[in-house]
Amino acid sequence: MTDPTAVPDQSSRLEGWRAKAHEVIFEADTSAGKLFDVVLIATILLSVVVVSAETMAGVRARVGPQLRVAEWVITILFTIEYVLRLLCVERPWAYARSFYGIIDLLAVLPTYVSVIWPGTQALVVVRVLRLLRIFRVLKLVQYVSEARTLRRALQASSRKIFVFVFVVLTVVVIVGSMMYLIEGPSRGFTSIPVSIYWAIVTLTTVGYGDIAPQTALGQFLSAFVMILGYGIIAVPTGIVTTELVREERRGASTQACRVCAAEGHDADATFCKYCGTRL
Q: CATH 1.20.120.350 region(s) of the chain?
């Protein structure tokens, strides 16, 4: 008896140059794929350097036109790469809506928009986010898995952390109000909001020193808040650590689905967990 909930076996229909291009552009299991990603990362870094240098008045005065030409050349290359990524998957819209798809689009839009609104080309520094692909190049995909585990742990502990933050906010409001009554405006605590700011700075053990209590009672309360701060810092760490222990750690592969371009599959995965296509 067959399982009615089972995902049908879908095989990719990519053939010829599209299949080869997908292997090179989306995956890092082959020499060509590794080389492509290394060149891509080098180009991303070069682009960020070019855009950053263009914001420096001295550099812009000397080689401004050359930097603009370099930026346009890099943008055109990224545009061609983005179009190829869309052509190399069976569901281009699925890739366009994915995290990497949105980042790849944002990497090329600012330069074109700068033609209409000058100055927006500085936004192309978003390209540095594309360096996340280095996880595939260096075979550090286990860190992608660990990042996913950390995200699940943070989601699982979000309610506890919310309650913790609420308690902390209550404490700083109470302590700030008390310090305002004890010290008063003449000693720098000019209002309750300013006193709450002092309480936050003290509780978090930052201690800017711009406001400090001068009375004995105020200093006693300040010392109590400092000691309390050390204990409070450990609370969210313990909450997240507990959730991390509960999470199952799984491996991941560098394979990308040829249909929806999804990545981050388990190392032993046979089918895409998003669309069911055989990997």
A: 16-139
Q: In this structure, which topology does domain 156-246 adopt according to CATH?
A: Helix Hairpins (1.10.287)
**What is the chain's percent helix, strand, coil content, to nearest 5?**
70, 0, 30
**Stretch (H or E) spanning 113:** helix 109-113
Crossing angle of the two packed helices 57-87 and 16-26, in degrees rounded to 10: 140
Look at the domain 16-139 and name its fold: Four Helix Bundle (Hemerythrin (Met), subunit A) (1.20.120)
3-state secondary structure of 277: strand
Q: Are 48 and 123 in contact (CB under 8 A)?
A: no
Report CA 257 to chain centroid distance, whole Å: 22
Q: Which two tokens stand for residue 137?
A: 């190049």
pLDDT at residue number 220: 93
Q: Range(s) for CATH 1.10.287.70 in the chain? A: 156-246
Rounded to the nearest 10 degrees, the angle between the axes of helix 216-246 and helix 192-203 is 60
Residue-wise pLDDT tens digits, 126-159: 666 666 555 555 545 555 556 667 777 777 788 8
Report which of 26, 27, 10, 41 is spatially closest to residue 87, judged by C-alpha positions: 26
Q: What is the pTM of this model?
A: 0.51
Q: Is 182 exposed, middle or buried (0-12, 13-18, 19+ CB in 10 A)?
A: buried
Dist CA 141 CA 147 (whole Å): 10
Q: Which residue has the tokens 């180009």?
A: 43
